[in-house]
Amino acid sequence: MRPPSRFRRVGILLVAASLSFSLAGCSAHSDSSAPGTMSEESSTDSSQQASDGRQISIVHALGTTKLNAPAKTVVALDRPWADAVLLLHGTLIGHTETYTHGQGLGDYLGDLPERFGADAVIVGTPREPDFNAIADLKPDLIVGARETSGAHYERLSEIAPTVMSEGAPATWKSGYLVLGKALGVDSDASAMLARYEEEAQRIGEEINTSASNPTISVLRFQNGPTRIYAAGSFPGMVLADAGLARPKSQRGGQNFIKVTVEQIADVDADRIFITTSPLGGERSMESFRATENWPELERRAVTADDTAWITSESLPGAYAILGELAHAFHVDGPVVPEGLMRYTGEVSDAQ
């Protein structure tokens, strides 16, 4: 594997600094920094801050908050945050269940849940967290997304220091830098992102060379309108990191495009990765299978892990996507961080 690009690491940090995050202290403390930026104080290494008595201070979507020392135990109210805690080897002591995937964490996480979250308990849902259960756990830090848990920020902050991200797919990388600072592993977090981007670029280059710059579509069947995930979605961003082309209609900044049975021919790409939601996905696919255009689509289709591609919005999920891309195009898969599942399955066609 090639060494991480110094310039790419700087780019990650600059992008992350422009997004909205914070670490909350036992109560929020406002300062003159504008939301969406990292304060000068927060840019110093958190282990140094802990040793010399200065607080860790980061601006987030709902204010500015501080930690007196790196956190050790974390409650995650959002799936991407739970993945990040585990990958950065924090101790996950509580997480929420999700509407589509229940109480389980993604298989792509390998043995990380057992190693760093074996005693984690369910603490409600992102929109309806169980405050008593969270308080009983006495976490050092609570992390969540503003769009789902933001209404509870003040109450959560009374329990423990709280972080609220914007929750949009565009912010998924910067969360690792914020959490790395909170856990006292700043350099590990930035290096981990740099290694991912190097692996994405390598895999994309090998795919483009071996398959003559193929176009990629991501199609999801679910309980509701079928979706093509475009450039502004999480899988769209991973594909962009890999330098893989999208059909022209999918290159805008939108998250997804709704597709009806009559529009199935519009799902145009050299390779189509198909995911199915556990809630009604198979039933939705049946109506598409009955169309005359389905055999042609199926010829170019590969089944994909719905949790990794659609709902993870995390670095472990991104590695899983790279693994499935690599196997679909018969190139070497990514070198993944310790503990993550290495994708070793055979390429399988959509059924």
TrEMBL record:
It holds the Pfam family Peripla_BP_2. Residues 73-333 form the Fe/B12 periplasmic-binding domain. Keywords: Signal, Transport. Residues 1-24 form the signal peptide. InterPro entries: ABC_transptr_periplasmic_BD, Bact_iron-sidero_bind. The keyword Transport applies. The keyword Transport applies. It is found in: Cell envelope. Residues 30-53 are annotated as: Disordered. PANTHER family: IRON III DICITRATE-BINDING PERIPLASMIC PROTEIN, IRON(3+)-HYDROXAMATE-BINDING PROTEIN FHUD. Belongs to the bacterial solute-binding protein 8 family. This is ABC transporter substrate-binding protein. It comes from Corynebacterium marambiense.
